[in-house]
Amino acid sequence: MFQVRTDLALEARELYHEEKQQEIPGVAVDQEKINDVTITRVEIMNEEAQQIMGKAIGKYITLECKALRRSDANLKDEVSQILAKELKEVVGNNTNIRALVVGLGNWNVTPDALGPKVASKVFVTRHLFQFYKKDRDEGLGQISAISPGVMGTTGVETGEIVQGIVEKIKPDIVVAIDALASRKMERVNTTIQISSTGINPGSGVGNKRKALNKETLGVPVIAIGVPTVVDAATLTSDTIHLVMEAFSKQAQKGSQFYNMLRELKEEEKYSLIREVLEPYNANVMVTPKDVDKIVLDLSHIIANAINIALHPGIDLKDVNRYIH
């Protein structure tokens, strides 16, 4: 299977299915649609599936909604509630959870600022538990949040910062939020992925750092990500595909021209484009022009979902009052 840059398990499964015309052995897939939101649950269950997909054994839940690019308050609330429900399923029934929320990314670069923006909107409570000398509360979890920045601005590996905090405050789980990369422009800023397997900071922009997962931190790491970029080769490949579709509709079926267009493989297309772009350092990362507004909206959705999922006594009305 050729390597198109993607952080989505859904897309890794699609790549295999398109090439082999069959499901991956050891992968369970379930899909559900709620109004405009499509939920796809992918579970990688064994090492064979892990090798094929290039993803760790675990659960990957993807929410897709093309309308997320619109400023629709009711839709954002609906997606927040759906995301909170899926997040609760991954976290489990822990009514007094201690969680560290980590907003990964560079707050000075808009497509990479999703994590820090989410962390700034999370309802943090650990200090209240310490001040009032409480061990538990029926309505609140013990939540901390941090935006560790990136090595280029701090000089410190993100994994080292998070590991030090985990050793000090000893949370039950870490929830990490980061920007991802997709193989399709249509999924940029319209897709949210939850995974139970952790994350590699910087993977969305092709700069993988030390992994944040149970093996490195000693506690389960739940990752939430949104693809905010694609590489130029992927964008060009998508564009060529759309042009081919338009041309093939005009060409007579069965003609040599039509058959040539239909038989051109994705692997050949992507590899050729990347080969042409690489010598000129032109395979850059691409994001929509209105990414600042979209990332702000997505940060509200994800922060709302985290607040609802980790605080048993908080609902959508409460979080909308808190986040502004």
What does the model show?
By secondary structure, the protein is an alpha/beta fold. It has 2 domains: 251 residues, HybD-like (Rossmann fold); 47 residues. Helices cover 42% and strands 19% of the residues. Strands 1, 2, 3, 4, 5, 6, 7, 8 and 9 form a 9-stranded mixed sheet that branches. The chain is globular and about 75 Å long. The relative contact order is 0.16. It is an enzyme of class 3 (hydrolase). Its EC number is 3.4.24.78. It catalyses: Endopeptidase action with P4 Glu or Asp, P1 preferably Glu > Asp, P1' hydrophobic and P2' Ala.
Précis, in short:
With 324 residues, the protein is an alpha/beta fold. The protein contains 13 helices and nine strands.
Distance between the termini: 45 Å
Annotation field: number of helices:
13
Biggest sheet statistics: 9 strands, mixed
Beta-strand share of residues: 15-25%
CATH topology of the largest domain: Rossmann fold
Average pLDDT across residues?
A: 83
Alpha-beta content class: alpha/beta
DSSP strand tally: 9
Number of domains: 2
CATH-defined architecture of the largest domain = 3-Layer(aba) Sandwich
Order of helices and strands: HEEHEHEHHEHHEEHEHHHEHH
CATH class of the largest domain: Alpha Beta
Radius of gyration: 21 Å
Unreliable spans: none
Shape: globular
Q: Helical amount among residues, as a percent range?
A: 40-55%
CATH homologous superfamily label of the largest domain: HybD-like
